[in-house]
TrEMBL record:
Residue ranges of domain THAP-type in the record: 1-93
Keyword Isomerase: no
Keywords, sorted A to Z: DNA-binding, Metal-binding, Zinc, Zinc-finger
InterPro entries referenced in this protein's UniProt entry, alphabetically: THAP_domain_protein, THAP_Znf, THAP_Znf_sf
GO molecular function: DNA binding; zinc ion binding
Domain of life: Eukaryota
One Pfam family per UniProt: THAP
Name the record gives this protein: THAP domain-containing protein 2-like
Length: 238
């Protein structure tokens, strides 16, 4: 298990103190690459016997560019575990480092990050406004690429939204027209049903129910009864 204290000779930072004071300091294990690991060991300036495999170096010994940029965390202003770039080497505060110094460095980093976040949010909320060169000076190139990608995605979504809005309007108009046709057909069907009912009522005194079914085409084949035959003869000899 990696050590809880920073391996740099004159550094007094430890994981326990960091958690107690809630400092924004992370601890990183030594790289597996031998050449890179030797550079880390030399940077620690230790004269005693120690094991790099179980040791760590705190984040105060690295510059900001040594860490990978997490755009999501910066935009949302949330804490995440810092991750070093593959070729990062400790070069800062190698002669002396304490929690007081770390507090100053952390505050400075927080102010810088806050300024960067404000510029990013401002540019994202006003995508059509031209970005000033001054606002990009403090923004990391990776963030610029992320912003450009987000801006392009935003424009594509705007175009897609306009297309869908137009399609929605067309569909709405079509539904209105279809509803009018349905209402008209329903009205005609109601009138036709009323006429059929009145006709059946008028013909009941002359024709049987079976004969009416044939006349109104409700049935194609029927079996005639005595009443049907009787009425048929009556009509025949009228």
């Amino acid at each position: 298990m990696p050590g809880t204290r920073c391996a740099v000779a004159l550094c007094s930072n430890s994981l326990q103190v960091t958690k107690k004071k809630d400092l924004n300091i992370s601890y990183h294990t030594f790289p597996k690459d031998k050449k890179l690991c030797n550079l880390w060991i030399n940077a620690c300036r230790r004269k005693d016997t120690w094991n790099p495999k179980t040791s760590t170096v705190c984040s105060l010994h690295f510059i900001e560019d040594d860490f990978e940029v997490d755009l999501r965390s910066q935009l949302m202003n949330i804490k995440t575990k810092k991750k070093l770039k593959p070729q990062a080497i400790p070069t800062q505060c190698l002669k002396e480092c304490s929690s007081d110094i770390s507090t100053q460095v952390t505050s400075r980093q927080q102010r810088a990050n806050k300024r960067i976040n404000e510029n990013i949010v401002k540019n994202l909320t006003l995508p059509t406004q031209e970005i000033e060169d001054e606002s990009l000076e403090d923004v990391h190139p990776v963030i610029e690429d992320k912003y450009e990608k987000l801006f392009n995605d935003h424009e594509k979504l705007k175009t897609k939204y306009k297309h869908l809005a137009e399609l929605k309007r067309n569909q709405k108009n079509r539904i209105i027209m279809l509803n009018k046709k349905v209402n008209l057909l329903s009205q005609k069907f109601g009138e036709q049903t009323t006429r059929t009912y009145r006709l059946e009522e008028a013909l009941k005194s002359i024709f049987s129910q079976t004969q009416l079914s044939l006349i109104t085409k409700q049935r194609k084949k029927v079996i005639w009864g005595t009443d049907d035959i009787s009425k048929a003869f009556t009509i025949r000899y009228l």
